[in-house]
Amino acid sequence: MLCGQDFSAWHRIKSDELWHYYSGDELLIYVIDETSKLNIFKLGNPLLHENAEFQVIVKANTWFSAELNKGDYCLVGCTVSPGFDFNDFEMAKEENLLKIYPEHHDIIKKLCKK
Length: 114
What we know:
Layout: E1 2-3, E2 7-13, E3 16-24, E4 27-32, E5 38-43, E6 55-58, E7 63-68, E8 73-81, E9 89-91, H1 94-100, H2 105-110
Antiparallel strand pairs: 1-8, 2-7, 2-9, 3-6, 3-8, 4-5, 4-7
């Protein structure tokens, strides 16, 4: 669950990750694809949140982060396939991401752990 100003900082894993919306407000998932394009997906209830989806997939080895769009909280779940292992998890270092993707400076600075 993400609440208030909580966010999921930029990271990547070695497996595909499927995010599931369960309850609450809309979540924005930021994904930098293999062409360096920043994609923004809205995770939420499409009956309540315009252009939202109940599920969003993030491909393996892709940098991504997430934050609330508006509101107080979003309850989500994630399914990782073929499976999750902490050895396959990499938290982004702000300076490294900025060197690779300078065009995404503002969102990288906003959603990296200090």
